[in-house]
Design brief:
The protein is flat and about 75 Å long. It has one domain. It has 6 helices and 11 strands. Strand 3 and strand 4 form a beta hairpin. Strands 1, 8, 9 and 11 form a 4-stranded antiparallel sheet that branches. It has a 3-stranded antiparallel sheet with strand order 3-4-5.
C-alpha cells in the first residue's frame, strides 16, 4: 500500500505487471580476424587462378547463426556458439592491360561466448500461431534465454592471394570449408562454392565489433504514467498547393552545417560559456 501511495505522489497512476525481455548478461568484443579464407564460385575461382594480386574493397555481414546450450558444470551459464558469414568484395588484377575484376566471395568465422542467463526449468506454451508444429495453437518451447548478437559492418584490413604451393604455410584462424556455407547463401551467389586443391586462394583480415546479449522473458512490476497515445496526425491534406506544403517544411540545417560543428557553435552560446 505504501508503494502504491509513493507512485501516485510521483505522478504515476499505477503499477502493472508486464512480461518483457531482461538482459541478464552481455559482453562486447573487438576481434581481428586474420587470414580468413574467401570462397568463390567456380566461375569466379577461374579469375582468381589467373590473378597476380588482389585488392580489398568492402565486406558486409550476410547472417549469423546462433546456437545456445547450457553448461553442464556451471548452472545458470550458457555457451553461445556464433557462426558469422561475410560477403567480401575484392579486386583481382589479372594483367597489365586488363581492368581489375570485381569479385564477391564468402568467408566464415566461428566463436564461442559464455554468458550468464539464469535458470528456468519450465515448459512454455503459447497460443501464438507458428508453422511446422504438431499443434500450431499451442507450440511448446524450452525455457532457455535468447542470445542476441549485434554486429557492426566489418572493416577490411588486408587481402592477399596465395599460390597452391604456399597455401599449407598460411595461417588461418578458422578451418571452415566451403561445405559449411548454407545452401541459401550459395544460391544467392548463383552457384556452389569450390575449394580446388591446386588453385590459388584469397585470404583477408577483417576487423569485427560485436555485442552479445542473453535475454530472458521475466515478469516485472513497473510504474505506469499513461497510455502511449499518438499525437501526430497521419492524414495529409491533398488540397494543399505544392508551394504551401514547401513552406511548412523546416529548413534543412544539417545539410548545410555538419551536426558536430553546429553543436559546438550552440554550446558556445550556452549559459555555461557566457562571461
Amino acid at each position: 500500500m505504501a508503494d502504491n501511495k509513493f507512485m501516485h505522489d510521483s505522478g504515476c497512476r499505477d503499477a502493472v505487471c508486464i512480461d518483457a525481455g531482461r538482459i541478464y548478461d552481455s559482453c562486447s568484443d573487438k576481434d581481428c580476424l586474420e587470414d580468413l579464407r574467401v570462397f568463390f564460385t567456380e566461375r569466379e575461382q577461374m579469375v582468381i587462378d589467373r590473378a597476380a594480386s588482389v585488392r580489398p574493397r568492402n565486406a558486409s555481414v550476410i547472417t549469423t547463426l546462433i546456437d545456445i546450450e547450457p553448461l553442464p558444470f556451471n548452472r545458470g551459464y550458457f555457451a553461445c556458439d556464433l557462426t558469422f558469414f561475410f560477403n567480401v568484395e575484392v579486386e583481382a588484377i589479372t594483367g597489365r592491360n586488363c581492368p581489375p575484376a570485381n569479385l564477391c566471395g564468402v568467408c566464415v568465422f566461428r566463436k564461442r561466448v559464455i554468458l550468464f542467463g539464469s535458470e528456468g526449468n519450465v515448459k512454455v506454451f503459447s497460443s501464438e500461431f507458428r508453422e511446422d508444429r504438431f499443434d500450431v495453437q499451442q507450440p511448446v518451447s524450452r525455457n532457455l534465454p535468447v542470445c542476441k548478437v549485434q554486429v557492426a559492418e566489418p572493416i577490411v584490413l588486408s587481402a592477399c592471394i596465395v599460390d597452391p604451393c604456399d597455401r599449407k604455410n598460411c595461417r588461418c584462424d578458422c578451418d571452415c570449408g566451403c561445405n559449411s556455407i548454407p545452401e541459401g547463401i550459395a544460391n544467392s551467389f548463383g552457384g556452389c562454392f569450390v575449394d580446388p586443391e591446386d588453385g590459388k586462394a584469397v585470404y583477408v583480415t577483417l576487423g569485427l565489433f560485436t555485442i552479445v546479449q542473453l535475454v530472458r522473458n521475466v515478469q516485472m512490476l513497473i510504474p505506469v504514467f499513461d497510455f502511449c497515445i499518438p499525437t501526430k496526425d497521419c492524414s495529409v491534406s491533398s488540397g494543399d498547393e505544392p508551394c504551401d506544403m514547401f513552406r511548412k517544411m523546416l529548413f534543412p540545417i544539417d545539410e548545410f552545417f555538419p551536426p558536430e560543428q553546429r553543436h559546438q557553435k550552440d554550446r558556445g552560446k550556452s549559459g555555461c560559456d557566457r562571461k
